[in-house]
Amino acid sequence: MTFNVVKKYLQYVGGVLQLVATNLTLCIFMGFKIGGDYLLGDWSVSPDQQSRFGFFCGLYFLILVLQSCFVYLRVPSLTYFSFKGTKTLHEDMVDRVLKAPCNSYFDRSSLSGILNHFSKDLSVIESTLVFEIGSGYVSFYNLLCVFVIAAFVVPWILLFLPPVLLVSVYLYRHSIAATKETLRIE
Question: Does the predicted model carry a pTM greater than 0.85?
Answer without folding.
Answer: no
